[in-house]
Amino acid sequence: MSGHLLSLASGVLPEFSPEQTAAAAIAAGWPAVGIWVEPSTWTAATAAEVRARTRDAGTVVLDVEVVWLKPGADDPDHLRIIDAGATIDARNVLVVSSDPDPQSSADKLRRLCEHAADRAMRVCLEFAAFTEIASLAAALDVISRTNHPAAGLLIDPLHFARTGATPAMLQGVDPRLLPYAQFCDAAALGPLPQDVPAIIEEALDLRLDIATGGLPLRALIDALPSAIPLSIELRSRALRDGFADPAERAAALLAATRSGMAVLQR
């Protein structure tokens, strides 16, 4: 379980700009960072500053987010998010889907993959109870339909558990589909499956530090590829309230993450 590249997920600092997120991650000592790309506000100056900061510090940009697939025609902003990621050397782009048609989702995903592959990026599909792709099986089906080597699967421990998945279900999943994963902890029991507002609240506000909750993290990490990069997706109201300064929040989370990973390795 050692040797994982740890990345500060962009969702840890939702109220801060990409430049501030990169600066906070670097100041706190994170080896990697995720960047939120909002096409309407992303500029060449934003890209230049994030790229300069991360390259100078040797900080990996693990992912950019989020491409949210919807019914209907392709959204040009989705390609802009990939292009923005390419300008800052991002390795992956995170995708979720609100398109109820699996084949339509797959077709859109394949076009994203074709665009991303030319930029040396992977397109990673995340599933969650509040999206149309709401299970591990559904996500694997869409990826299979996509039939493109740039397509990947993104596991988030919270969504994984809340959609009824177990670590044993990852047996037989091609490790090449898993270029990185998210990581966090949460209460062992979550909201009722039909309580979508509560599910979303938990995902945005109630995540816990690693090894402080009840998710089967040890079994999950053992089921994932060895040394898989981990984006620490710890969206937490308590963390935001406790650390208003972005660098202090990033530092506190890194310390808690290292402590939690050490517990898992015992």
Automatic annotation (TrEMBL):
Domain Xylose isomerase-like TIM barrel: 24-245
InterPro entries: IolE/XylAMocC-like, Xyl_isomerase-like_sf, Xyl_isomerase-like_TIM-brl
Gene3D superfamilies in UniProt: Divalent-metal-dependent TIM barrel enzymes
Family annotation (PANTHER family): BLL3656 PROTEIN (PTHR12110:SF48), HYDROXYPYRUVATE ISOMERASE (PTHR12110)
Protein name: Xylose isomerase-like TIM barrel domain-containing protein
Organism encoding this protein: Blastomonas fulva
